[in-house]
Amino acid sequence: MNPLISVIVPCYNQAQYLDECLQSVLDQTYQNWECIIVNDGSPDNTAELAEKWVQQDKRFSYYYSENKGVSNARNIGLDQTNGNFIQFLDSDDTMSADNFAQKVKFAEDFKIIFSDFNILTNNQLLPGYNKLSEELLTFNEVFFNWETVFTIPIHTAIISKSLFDNFRFNTTLTCFEDWLMWLYLAHQNPPVRFIDTPLVAYRKEIEAHKTASGNLEKVVKQRIKVMPLIKEWYGEELHDQLVYHLLLIKSIENIQLKKELSKIKNGRIISTYLKFKTYLYKKRNQ
After folding, report:
1. Domain ranges (residues) in the chain
2. Does residue 222 register a pLDDT over 80?
3. Per-residue pLDDT tens over the stretch 42-63
């Protein structure tokens, strides 16, 4: 089997990493791919760099959109794909040269083939922040344990295009859009294969706190925003089970935190904690 793999690269203000990202696509030992670069209205020199790659290799194509977020950029990419499998790759992330070659071995029998990953920081490759396995990519695991136990970086997998026939990313979300994708895919119960080797790298630099996923207040608001979609897609019963599950987890975490703080004799630390707690209560009541 020699499937065409469509790589979708959404770009916004990451021009300093784009060459490295696209070079990792060009370096693939498996050659049957296309790469769709979608510029999400970047004010930097993303357009200039992207055009250079399009001129260098006809397998690269380039599209521009006004800034509407990563979900819209990925949707544009999905609409332009010709491949049998989809590979999402954010413009600051990279793949090992054998990523496609290792995964297409299983393309005839599996709809999702995903691998382990590394963290790329300060030009160093470190182990991923959680260990992946085939057992994690089930609907119940993704539904109840996303973020509290694990997450699956979106670029760890090549995914059969047929699984996206009735799916597009929600453009109102700035995070958790990938969670909705994995839920949608897992709900179809496709055959899945896991490769216990890190074949992609997920960049986490110091400035990550400036992104949506690095802003804790925005993350909480986005989690709340996504819950009505969960109820619409999967019903009130599952929605309520998830809410109670998350409340239980957060309650246990707070109890454990209080126990640890009770061991601290330094009144200055306790005072800081109480001030922080007061701040949180005020934010919740705004």
Report:
1. 5-208, 235-284
2. yes
3. 999 999 999 999 999 999 999 9
Domain 5-208's class? alpha beta
- Convert the pLDDT of each residue in 229-256 to its tens digit: 999 999 999 999 999 998 898 788 778 7
Strand 33-40, strand 5-11: pairing: parallel
- Alpha-helix runs per DSSP H in the chain: 15-26, 46-56, 70-80, 99-104, 139-145, 177-187, 216-234, 236-262, 267-284
What is the DSSP annotation of 188-233? Answer: T---EEEEEEEEEEEE--GGGGGSGGG-HHHHHHHHHHHHHHHHHH
Q: Which pTM value belongs to this model?
A: 0.86
Residue whose C-alpha is closest to residue 62's, from 87, 90, 34: 34
Burial class (CB in 10 A: 0-12, 13-18, 19+), 44: middle
Q: What is the chain's length?
A: 286
Yes or no: say if 163 and 112 are a contact pair by the CB < 8 Å rule: yes
